[in-house]
Amino acid sequence: MHDRRIDGETAVFGNATSLFMSAMTWWDHTTESIWSQPWGRAIEGSQKGVELFLLPSQVTTWSAWRAEHPQTVVMINDFDRLANLRQTFDENFVIGVTLADEAKAYRFTEVAEVTLINDMIGETAVLVWASETSFHTYVRVAESIDEPLTFYMEGDQIKDEQAGSVWDISLGLAVEGPLRNTILPALPSLTAFEENWFDFYPHAALWQSPTN
């Protein structure tokens, strides 16, 4: 999901009905430039090289989203098609994260197996979380006042080792303990087939379990 404002003007995009490296392309109605969806970058036309700001977003089940956001308004073209859509993450899916000049991918199945991963992307501490049942993924900056935090599971709760606070991962919010009301900023991420992610980010790192 991208912010579609360009130089202060809100752009209107459409499906260009063609693929670039097996991924969707858009066209903007003002200049008719062609844009790569994974990059959010214009690849042809007068806007070539311009990039849209990537926003945090989620791929999850409707039931899980509705439970957390009951007032959500849904825009949908064909309700009858919902029953035929995929309801699980493919085993070859990765959670791809870009941060400044760094890019890193996490295999969804490996994250879901351990629930959460403490990691570094460049010099930034990050927390990556995934659920096998709701297919939620969250990627957040794991720092409090510039101090890196390390998280662990205690039963169904997520706690940090430094202060022992309890966190709501969906909000990125400490709900109990010394860090109560502290927020972990969300990081934009993409879910994609592993081979497709590395087509667009060939120099990205791939997270490996320390036990491997």
Automatic annotation (TrEMBL):
InterPro entries in the cross-refs: DUF3179
This protein's name: DUF3179 domain-containing protein
Organism, as annotated: hydrothermal vent metagenome
Biological classification of the source: unclassified sequences, metagenomes, ecological metagenomes
